[in-house]
Amino acid sequence: MPHKYDFTRYKTTLQIIILLSIIIFLRAPRVFLEGRIWAEEGNVFFKTAYESGVVSLFTLYAGYLNLFANVCAYVASLLPLKCVGYVFVYASLFVELGVVAYVLLQNNQYLNQWSRFLLVCMLIMSPNSTSELFCNSINMQSWFGVWGLILLFENGHLHSRRIQTISYIVYFMGCLTGVYCLFSVPFVVLRAIFCKIKHKSLPVYWKVLSVIGIVAGCIQAASFLLSRKNMSSARGFEGFDALESLIYAFRFQFILPLLGKNVAAQIGNIGILIFVFSFLAIVILITWLCNKRCVRYVVCVMGVLFFVQILIIAASLNHMAGGRYAFMPAFIVYMLFSILLTELMEKRNFVISVALITYSIFLGTISLKEYINSKGFNYPNVLSWEKQVEAYEKNGEYDFQAWPDNWQTFTLKKKK
Prior knowledge:
Elements: H1 7-27, H2 29-34, H3 40-52, E1 60-61, E2 64-65, H4 67-77, H5 84-105, H6 113-125, H7 141-153, H8 161-175, H9 185-199, H10 204-227, H11 242-259, H12 261-266, H13 269-290, H14 293-317, H15 327-346, H16 350-373, H17 385-395
Helix pairs in contact: 1-5, 3-4, 4-5, 5-7, 6-15, 6-16, 7-8, 7-15, 8-10, 9-10, 11-13, 11-14, 11-15, 14-15, 15-16
């Protein structure tokens, strides 16, 4: 029987989204008032869409298909030039707030309302919420990755068909937007298999999601093979130090979101290893205290996902694993924290629950301070998109400048 939400939850969710929307707006008002194009949104995605039309929906960049950025760019190309910056910003904001609503409304047995709210705050105000991730289409793949992870642990087969259909569309979009959502595909298939074994039947919901994930994975694999010849090999593996890269990845994707930027920058390599193993020991202890097979399963899956991403990023970026690359692994840590907190609160384990709540307040203080003091969300040296368009229409040609500063300029061919 489809799951029905309590309408009071919709009301509460709407209130939280409005509050978070205000917080996001105050972080960089100029972005929302003037519109903005970020990095490759300009010289790659919009330029291609503006000059090539509908074919641009299949643009490959950096070895994969970024469908969301392609769609945003194509829609923007159909509108007056002055609207382009707003399309990218508000479409991306819609995805971010959609993920927030999904976290708050999902049918998830592992998270209570308090821990869901905590998780949402961590999402919006994380020290890893850098300017690279702030309302731009090219990095929405990280937010779709969050959606895929949440989807994996909820009872989606209990939803109405309308909600299930929305999940299918978003999951398909997510799997074809970068790589992060693809990490959930093997586990979606495994969940479908377990459902078949346990219940002697396979819910249509998990069957469809499995097919979507496999098809999207094949498309992304083909995209990689097609674009491999054109990919730059500048980073390569020359002088690559596996251990140093792994420690670097743990510093910026694990310690930073848990202890803040100042501690992450000062702690030494030995300290990083000690912290990682200590945290792992604490998680194992708390999981053992939970004494629930389902919770242990979730912790194991999330642990595998975390370490796989750490290893892949450490190997592929070669000492460059910071900024936006830290967002998804950090969210896995935050969600793991929220799940364990939920279980301990239900078991009324007072001492550990208070300790975790105290830590969450500590983390919130760090995040709020770094959120307020964060730099890079405004670039006064870059003209507003509207003024650049005015110069273009007046002179007939113009070197458009995207954010951040010193990003590659681009020109547009006049439409006939």
